[in-house]
């Protein structure tokens, strides 16, 4: 559609310019001179402006300008609808804001939906102590959501993830796993770590988050993590779920 608009605008501009440009060129006597030794029917061209092509150049330039401008506007509109990663500044702002509230242990699974200026929505999982009163936890979540709407005009939906903090074994393993991931790649992270004991073995379950654009060997990564967990306790049986992040490619 923008191509037809640009062509139409260029034609209309050329016709409008034609009246004025040709008249001015005739006043300046920028007309074509006819040689006397040529055919007599060439004499009808005498006085025809020789620089009339300027109006076509100007018309074409306007058409190209409209095409370039229109393409930029189309891409600005379509990019959010087709899907694009949110800015690192927005991701960092949301995460740091949530982490600034008392009692919040961690955040994960942040997703930002952008439907154009003034129409942004976000969802995020917030980790809170499982021992905390559920009513207090939900009250805190409500306050966070209201604060985002009040200060940032951003509608945020928060999912409550209870984290066991009274089990020393879970705390120790979480610290060790976090450090191991930091050594492998600072952009890697984990959440929802659980230790479920059994008669013959103990299941260790958690979600391993890969940053957007992760190019590492996933099989090798899982192998290293499973080996590391076995080194902590031979009875541990790993159940690791790989999860893809759709926010920033890497956290600084």
Describe the structure.
The protein has six helices and six strands. Helix content is 47%, strand content 22%. By secondary structure, it is α/β, with parallel strands linked by helices. A hairpin with a 5-residue loop joins strand 1 (106-114) and strand 2. A three-stranded mixed β-sheet has the order 1-2-3, with helices on one face. A three-stranded mixed β-sheet has the order 4-5-6, with helices on one face. Helix 1 runs antiparallel to helix 2 and helix 5 (168-184) runs antiparallel to helix 6 (218-232). The mean pLDDT is 78.
Uncertain regions spanning at least 5 consecutive residues:
none
What is the percentage of strand-forming residues?
Answer: 15-25%
H and E string: HHHEEHEHEEHE
How many strands? Answer: 6
- The helix-and-strand class reads alpha/beta
Helix content: 40-55%
Structural descriptors:
6 strands; three-stranded mixed β-sheet; 6 helices; 22% strand
Brief description of this entry?
The protein is α/β, with parallel strands linked by helices and 252 residues long.
């Amino acid at each position: 559609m923008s191509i037809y608009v640009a062509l139409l605008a260029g034609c209309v501009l050329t016709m409008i310019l034609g009246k004025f440009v040709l008249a001015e060129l005739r006043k300046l006597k920028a007309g074509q001179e006819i040689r006397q030794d040529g055919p007599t029917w060439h004499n009808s061209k005498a006085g025809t402006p020789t620089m009339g092509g300027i109006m076509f150049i100007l018309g074409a330039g306007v058409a190209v300008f409209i095409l370039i401008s229109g393409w930029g506007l189309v891409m600005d509109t379509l990019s959010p609808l087709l899907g694009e990663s949110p800015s690192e500044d927005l991701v960092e702002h949301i995460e740091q804001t949530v982490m600034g509230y008392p009692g919040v242990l961690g955040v994960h699974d942040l997703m930002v939906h952008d439907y154009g200026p003034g129409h942004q929505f976000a969802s995020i999982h917030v980790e809170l102590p499982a021992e905390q009163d559920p009513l207090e936890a939900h009250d805190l979540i409500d306050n966070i959501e209201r604060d985002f709407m009040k200060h940032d005009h951003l509608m945020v939906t928060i999912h409550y993830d209870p984290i066991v903090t009274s089990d020393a074994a879970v705390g120790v393993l979480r610290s060790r796993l976090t450090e191991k991931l930091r050594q492998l790649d600072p952009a890697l992270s984990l959440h929802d770590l659980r230790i479920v004991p059994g008669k013959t073995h103990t299941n260790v379950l958690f979600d391993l988050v890969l940053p957007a654009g992760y190019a590492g060997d996933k099989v090798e990564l899982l192998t290293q993590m499973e080996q590391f967990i076995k080194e902590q306790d031979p009875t541990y049986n790993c159940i690791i779920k790989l999860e893809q992040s759709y926010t920033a490619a890497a956290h600084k």
